[in-house]
Amino acid sequence: MARIKYYYDTETCKYERIKVRTQDVIWNVLGLASLILVSSVGIVFLFFSYFESPKEVRLTNEVEEMQHYYENLDKEVTQLHEVLAALERRDDNLYRVVLGSEPIDPSVRNAGIGGTDRYTELRNKDLDNKDIIVELKEDVDKLRRKMYIQSKSYDEIADLAESKEKLFAAIPAIQPVSNEELIRLASGFGYRTHPIYKVRKMHPGIDFSAPPGTPIYATADGTVVKAQVRFSGYGKLIEIDHGFGYKTRYAHMQEFEVKSGQTVKRGQVIGYVGSTGLSTAPHLHYEVLKNDKQINPVHYFFNDLNPDEYEKIIELASIENQSLGM
């Protein structure tokens, strides 16, 4: 039951009952409701200004986690770029220099993907951080392309190395007979007195004096292209094609250990010293040819000689004397 309110009327000196109009009640209710509404809005505003909702907290955590992953990925990509740059420097300045190949042009290494914008679809997506995503994607694609170029470079280097290995094996780099004390070189390359005609003639090889039956070694890897017997000139002769323009000849032999068409390795015994053909004493006449031109074999004795021994054998080969055969 609502309480009845009174007020004191000074004119009548009596307490009069307060009469409340319906209109006043309505306005009072509306005013109170407005005050409550404004207060509630203010409280809600203040609350959300200083406190995050559960959804906002979850989204904030997701953003922070994504930022963390992005920073880690970006750091890893940067580290991969640094590692790849080191590999590229080693490739250009070491491997290719050693193998005699030109470095890869920087414009090739740093060339773009080309074509239309590969990231149009990604740019058109309704994403808040799409620029960051596109930038990272571009960086990864650039890294992927540079790694592809580097892998192809290593394939090329492997081919070059294999080719160089074959080239080194094809160079006549040892003496054809055992000559540890350097006493068997009897006559060098150049003009020498012919043992039969007693006139100065071009001697196109080197003569090694040795007892009959002394082993003769292939001076490089190759294929025997000649194993022929003559009663004059070179006598029993073996010729080996080593590839890359190199050939060697071994003349005045006593007998063969190989036959035509056979492949041989450096250091393999191919026959024995004799005195067949136009020869005045047991010896090996040895020639080196480069692109079918006879060259001084002494310049190729570097695998089994130290610098002092090499200088000594150069000196011995330069002495003009009489050759032991043609």
TrEMBL record:
<feature type="domain" description="M23ase beta-sheet core">
    <location>
        <begin position="202"/>
        <end position="297"/>
    </location>
</feature>
<keyword id="KW-1133">Transmembrane helix</keyword>
<dbReference type="InterPro" id="IPR050570">
    <property type="entry name" value="Cell_wall_metabolism_enzyme"/>
</dbReference>
<keyword id="KW-0472">Membrane</keyword>
<protein>
    <submittedName>
        <fullName>Peptidoglycan DD-metalloendopeptidase family protein</fullName>
    </submittedName>
</protein>
<feature type="transmembrane region" description="Helical">
    <location>
        <begin position="25"/>
        <end position="51"/>
    </location>
</feature>
<dbReference type="InterPro" id="IPR011055">
    <property type="entry name" value="Dup_hybrid_motif"/>
</dbReference>
<dbReference type="Pfam" id="PF01551">
    <property type="entry name" value="Peptidase_M23"/>
</dbReference>
<keyword id="KW-0812">Transmembrane</keyword>
<keyword id="KW-0175">Coiled coil</keyword>
<dbReference type="GO" id="GO:0004222">
    <property type="term" value="F:metalloendopeptidase activity"/>
</dbReference>
<dbReference type="InterPro" id="IPR016047">
    <property type="entry name" value="M23ase_b-sheet_dom"/>
</dbReference>
<feature type="coiled-coil region">
    <location>
        <begin position="56"/>
        <end position="90"/>
    </location>
</feature>
